[in-house]
Every structure is written in structure tokens, then in C-alpha cells.
Design a protein that fits this description.
By secondary structure, the chain is of the alpha/beta class. It has one domain: Dihydrofolate Reductase, subunit A (3-Layer(aba) Sandwich). Helices cover 17% and strands 33% of the residues. The chain has four helices and ten strands, in the order ββαβαββαβαββββ. The strands form two sheets. An eight-stranded mixed sheet has the order 5-4-3-6-1-7-10-9, sandwiched between helices. The chain has a two-stranded antiparallel sheet with strand order 2-8. Strand 3, helix 2 and strand 4 form a beta-alpha-beta unit. The chain is globular. The chain binds NADP nicotinamide-adenine-dinucleotide phosphate (NAP). The site of NADP nicotinamide-adenine-dinucleotide phosphate has 29 residues, from strand 1, strand 2, helix 2 and helix 4. NADP nicotinamide-adenine-dinucleotide phosphate binds next to strand 1, strand 2, helix 2 and helix 4.
Length: 169
């Protein structure tokens, strides 16, 4: 079965962002994101697509939007719902879902793998990662990164695999 992976950075209180921006700057998290997602196709919500912080796939970016008139550049395709987005990527071994909050909430039940950066701080925000039932997940990796010259907050790069198979997506 193909891997449906969610990749997100969130604070201890599950904040993903505010005013369509990230609320931290963590270069080592971007580097990890680039390493993990290299060469893969992405799915993201239209709001995240419009964020100045968003990083795009050089392969294919599927943008979830109910707006048929949405104009997208080359390398981007609109999908009117999540099943249509996954259909567009039916041949991919791995699909990376990049958020934001609305899209994570809908896709978490389909996910088989989570790449989560936990920023060890509480922030104010207006987009949140959904609550996770951790009894369904086992931790595969956790690497702690302390505060340093480039990073104002400590964070952990974590990976989780679903214990029971996710519904077919
Ligand atoms: N920290 C992180 O890892 C991370 C990652 C990504 C984003 N973010 C943050 O998350 C925030 C954005 O998240 P958000 O929840 O506001 O928005 P979002 O999930 O990025 O996008 C929501 C939009 O996606 C479309 N959409 C959602 N579900 C759909 C469905 N089932 N079918 C068709 N279209 C659908 C709709 O677009 P239309 O209105 O066009 O129909 C909807 O308005 C920002 O603050 C951003 O910085 C953080």
C-alpha cells in the first residue's frame, strides 16, 4: 500500500501558524523538510499554497480548492476534494500532505506516517494540527535540537508510523 505521509511543524499547543505565516524560523527544520520530501509530490490546501512560507515540490503540487477558477502555474494542479487529489497521485509510492490545519484534519485518518517537528514552546496562532490519538501510532525516530545561534527555540524532529493499517486512501 502506498505511503500517505503528513509533514508538519507544530508547537507544544499544536499551533501551525498565524495570519498564514509560520511563527518561528528554524532553518534545520527546513533542511530536514527538504531532505525528507526530495523528489516527491505534494498536496496542500489553497490557503497554505498562498503562504509566503510555503515550499513547493519540483515534481507536482496538488492544491486543494473548491474554486474552479483558481489559476495555477505549471507544476501545479487543482483538486476539488481530497479523494480527487489522491487519485491524481495514484501512481506515487509516497504522497506528502503539507497542510495546513484544515487539510491535516481531513487527511490524518488516511495517513500511515507522520513527520512532525515539535517546537518546544507555546505560541498564539489561528491554525492548528488536529489532536492525535497516540495509541494508534508508534514513534520511529526522535531527534532533539537545542537552542543555538540559528534557532531561538528547541525542537524535536519526530517520525511516527501507524500501528494498524490506515483506511485505503
Ligand atoms: N507549520 C506547518 O507545518 C504548516 C504547514 C502548512 C501550513 N501551515 C499554516 O497553516 C495555516 C493555513 O492552514 P488553514 O487551515 O488556514 O488552510 P489550508 O488547510 O492550508 O487551506 C484551506 C483551503 O483548502 C481548500 N480545501 C480544504 N479542504 C478542502 C476539500 N476537502 N476540498 C477542496 N478544497 C479544500 C479550501 O480552499 P478554497 O477556499 O480555495 O476552496 C480551503 O479554504 C497557515 O497559517 C500556514 O502558515 C503550517
Amino acid at each position: 500500500m502506498r505511503k500517505i505521509a503528513l509533514i508538519a511543524a507544530m508547537s507544544e499547543n499544536r499551533v501551525l501558524g498565524k495570519d498564514n505565516k509560520l511563527v518561528w524560523e528554524l532553518p534545520a527544520d527546513w533542511e530536514n523538510f527538504r531532505r525528507v520530501t526530495a523528489g516527491q509530490a505534494f498536496v496542500m490546501g489553497r490557503v497554505s499554497y498562498e503562504s509566503e512560507d510555503m515550499l513547493f515540490s519540483d515534481r507536482l503540487n496538488v492544491i486543494l480548492s473548491r474554486r474552479p477558477q483558481l489559476e495555477l502555474p505549471e507544476g501545479f494542479e487543482r483538486a476539488p476534494d481530497l479523494p480527487a487529489a489522491l487519485d491524481l497521485l495514484a501512481d506515487e509510492e509516497t504522497v506528502f500532505i503539507l497542510g495546513g490545519g484544515q487539510v491535516f484534519a481531513q487527511s490524518l485518518p488516511l495517513a500511515s506516517y507522520l513527520y512532525l517537528t515539535i517546537v518546544h514552546h507555546e505560541f498564539e496562532g489561528d491554525a492548528f494540527f488536529p489532536p492525535v490519538d497516540w495509541s494508534q501510532w508508534e514513534m520511529v525516530r526522535s531527534v532533539f535540537h537545542p537552542v543555538d545561534d540559528r534557532h531561538a527555540y528547541p525542537f524535536s524532529l519526530q517520525e511516527f508510523s501507524r500501528i494498524l493499517p490506515a483506511p485505503k486512501g
